[in-house]
Design brief:
Helix content: 55-70%
CATH class of the largest domain: Mainly Alpha
Distance between the termini: 50 Å
Largest sheet: 3 strands, antiparallel
Structural class: mainly alpha
Number of domains: 2
């Protein structure tokens, strides 16, 4: 069972792998920025790099992440292995990623939010994917929540952290009522943020490499 910080780090790795593969795997700095994004997140967090590093070590011990040492950079980078360990198809990974980052959602909300990760043909494919996750062996990975009074559609939630508490569901409900950005605008802002952070990260690595190069002549 995973805690909230582990869910956020893992979900952020999934998101960046699927939306900005050119910047994936992620350095510790880039992953920390991804965890603390203000768009496509519920709740918004303010983790520091030390916290994220500790979470990564915990996830590594659970065989869900590993450190990647590329030939082009001395800076360690991090990848998730959810697909391999949990045997997830591309649409299943997309739905799980959306649920990890934004909490319980309806089929319609998932179609919009998870479409950044996978091109669903329609609501039927999202529902089929949810059914597959619900019937996953040896344990279900998603559960359908009872429809609340005043709600038109039922919501679904991942089970990586165990069964959700009533308090957590109340907080999610309050958040969903106060923040409803238009899907297209949210995607545009998110894409720009990802590109800017990717450029910042590349510049930071170049600076570090340049400093190491200068030391050879000191």
């Amino acid at each position: 069972m995973l805690n909230d910080a582990e869910i956020r780090v893992l979900g952020s790795l999934v998101e960046k792998q699927l939306t900005t593969p050119e910047y994936y795997p992620l350095t510790l700095h880039a992953l920390t920025v991804a965890c603390n994004q203000k768009n496509n997140r519920n709740p918004v967090t303010a983790y520091d790099e030390n916290t994220v590093a500790q979470v990564l070590e915990s996830l590594r011990e659970k065989s869900l992440t590993y450190v990647f040492h590329g030939s082009s950079s001395r800076v360690p980078k991090y990848k998730h292995v959810m697909t391999e360990v949990l045997h997830l198809s591309p649409p299943e990974l997309a739905v799980m990623g959306a649920l990890m980052l934004r909490g319980p959602q309806t089929v319609g909300e998932l179609r919009g939010n998870a479409s950044r990760f996978h091109e669903f043909s329609g609501l039927d494919e999202v529902q089929t994917t949810l059914n597959e996750l619900i019937s996953k062996e040896p344990e279900a990975m998603v559960v359908r929540l009872p429809r609340q009074p005043g709600q038109k559609d039922a919501r679904f939630v991942h089970l990586l952290s165990g069964a959700p508490s009533p308090e957590a569901l109340t907080e999610v409900e309050a958040y969903s009522k106060t923040i409803q950005p238009r899907h297209g605008e949210s995607d545009k802002v998110g894409k720009l943020e990802q590109e800017i952070e990717g450029l910042k990260e590349e510049f930071r690595i170049l600076q570090q490499q340049f400093e190491e190069f200068k030391k050879q002549f000191e």
